[in-house]
Amino acid sequence: MQFDGKTVVVTGAAGGIGGNYVRAFAAAGANVVAADVPAAAEAGVALAEKATAAGGGPVVFVAGDVTSDADWAVLVARARDEFGGIDALVNNAAIYQGLTAKRPLTDLSTDDWDTVLRVNVRGTWQGIRAVAPVMRAGGGGRIVTISSTTARTGVPGFAHYVASKAAVEGLTRVAARELGADGITVNAVAPGLVSDEASRALNSDAYLAAAAGGRALGREMLPDDLVGAVLFLTSDAGGFVTGQTLVVDGGGVFT
Ligand SMILES: NC(=O)c1ccc[n+]([C@@H]2O[C@H](COP(=O)([O-])OP(=O)(O)OC[C@H]3O[C@@H](n4cnc5c(N)ncnc54)[C@H](O)[C@@H]3O)[C@@H](O)[C@H]2O)c1
Predict the structure, then answer these.
(1) Which of 10, 122, 146, 172 is deepest in the core (most CB within 10 A)?
(2) Is the CB of 40 inside a 6 Å radius of any atom of ligand 1?
(3) Rg (CA), the chain
(4) Which one is catalytic: 21, 96, 161, 207?
């Protein structure tokens, strides 16, 4: 899948998984706008420099919070000025690593709930709302949201996170219907438990091994396992797929 001349925005780019999307899009020739919170700017700039130096398309880092309309306006303006528009958005940012511990729903505070829903759901909607007019003006586009298999398994200890990811899937379907006439596809990717730093902080090795054992493919999942699905859904080849959730978990959960 080639993305020469296309401009792709990836949020949460400095996280455990986001950088893999950035590197893959750049290697496939895309202009990449890699976005993350200002606190992640150092890692984000380093990622952008390294990915650009590796060849393929250029990568720029833009600091911003997905829950800020002003930050989205800056990002969209930068993409327009530097690359002429936006062809694809991967709404990858979420509060995941920041969850720090699994807790029963009876122990969650209202603030815990609001913080997760605000970033994971509202931030995803704000991103779609910010890029849709630019994509419309450019004749179409591709949007990928990121869910989680926990929305299906209802894994205990994550009520706010699980609810947020189920909401992302609903939002994805509405957005697909509302934006389809403009040539914009909107799909969700639902990863299984990825053996990255964030997951290791939240789960024991035994838990990760049990997840691996429950998969048809019988191994731990790595961030790179997600890249093919995300690239497909943002490519020309994925152009007639919309409103869907693609589970990528090595055959752990069947839908
Ligand atoms: N790691 C897993 O096992 C797993 C499984 C299923 C789904 N996911 C999803 O995959 C995506 C990436 O997960 P990850 O493992 O890389 O998590 P992560 O916590 O390592 O990365 C998330 C990134 O989002 C950024 N972010 C958080 N709040 C933000 C905000 N308000 N504005 C902008 N950026 C913000 C963080 O700074 C971080 O760089 C998330 O949507 C997550 O829910 C992860």
Answers:
(1) 10
(2) yes
(3) 17
(4) 161
The residue to mutate among 10, 17, 45, 193, having the most atoms of ligand 1 within 8 angstroms of its beta carbon, is 17
Task: Name the pTM for this structure.
Answer: 0.98
The CATH number of the domain covering residues in 7-248: 3.40.50.720
- Ligand 1 centroid to residue 132 C-alpha, Å: 22
Residues 175-227 pLDDT 10s = 999 999 999 999 999 999 999 888 888 888 999 999 999 999 999 999 999 99
161 catalytically annotated: yes
Q: What is the pLDDT of residues 31-76, one digit of tens each?
A: 999 999 999 999 999 999 999 999 999 999 999 999 999 999 999 9
Phi-psi region of 84 (alpha: psi -120 to 50; beta: other; left: phi over 0): left
Confidence of residue 97 (pLDDT cuts 50, 70, 90): low
DSSP letter string, the chain? ---TT-EEEEESTTSTTHHHHHHHHHHTT-EEEEEE-GGGHHHHHHHHHHHHHTSSS-EEEEE--TT-HHHHHHHHHHHHHHHSS-SEEEE---SSGGG-S---GGG--HHHHHHHHIIIIIHHHHHHHHHHHHHHHTT-EEEEEE--THHHH--TT-HHHHHHHHHHHHHHHHHHHHHGGGTEEEEEEEE--B-SHHHHHHS-HHHHHHHHHTSTT-S-B-GGGGHHHHHHHHSGGGTT--S-EEEESSSSS--
**Closest atom of ligand 1 relative to the 150 alpha carbon:** 6
Q: Residue 153: CB within 6 Å of ligand 1?
A: no
